[in-house]
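User:
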Amino acid sequence: MNRPMVLCCAGRPVARYVLRPDLAPDHSPRPHLHPVSTLAGVTVTEQLPADHPHHLGVGVAVADVAGFTFWGGRTFVRDQGPIALDNHGVQRHEGFKLRDPDGFVEELTWTAGERTLLREHRTVSATALTDSAWALDFTFSLANVSGEELSIGSPATNGRPGAAYGGFFWRAPLESAPPEVFGAEADGERSVHGRTADWVALAGQGWTLIFAGATEETRRDPWFVRAAEYPGVGSSLAFAERLAVAEGAAVVRRVVTVVADGRLDRDAAAALVRKAVTA
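Assistant: Predicted structure:
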């Protein structure tokens, strides 16, 4: 089944979930959400943008799993820079454990060549918060089924400072001006990127996205934030050092994203986060 499924909230379609994207191998094909919209219908994701054609809406993308990329594009190699390598993996939809209009529970495999490295258990749900805001609750569990220890890295752990992307990632739409970036106690991309915080926000033209780590372990991951170059937010699994995953062990993270109409201020964002994480 290649037809995207529709995710609904408060009786309205707010996202499409692409199960089996027909993409070139160097895009690291993977299930993802796009388009995602506010309750008023404003699109707040980007897919295959010209600046980074391997960015695919909302999903889980990791640049380095034991040397294989599940992010797409070029691989950053220490002392050499970004290089096009034949090392792209694929995330495959294996089936649903549960599927409702407002959410689903999915099983996936992460494969590189003939080898299965990870099995993922993914839970996604949509919850109405107000008449102008809803929350996307996204949990993933990556279990190492490779038969040996794996390690998760990023361009930062491979020698590119500040590029610690890999994990939950949301590519927002490119507009005529960069979105405003702020957190609970900080303002601006430089103040938020690479730091831990209960939540961070992007505010664009008629929309605001507020990202919150919904577990203690998730909140320990620094945020990866881009605004000036392109708009995107992720939670870094491997910020300063590689993350070792023992055979049979699992990495579990949960990010709740508030999707709101309008350009919210800090107080309004904080109030919605509190409601979303406790909903």
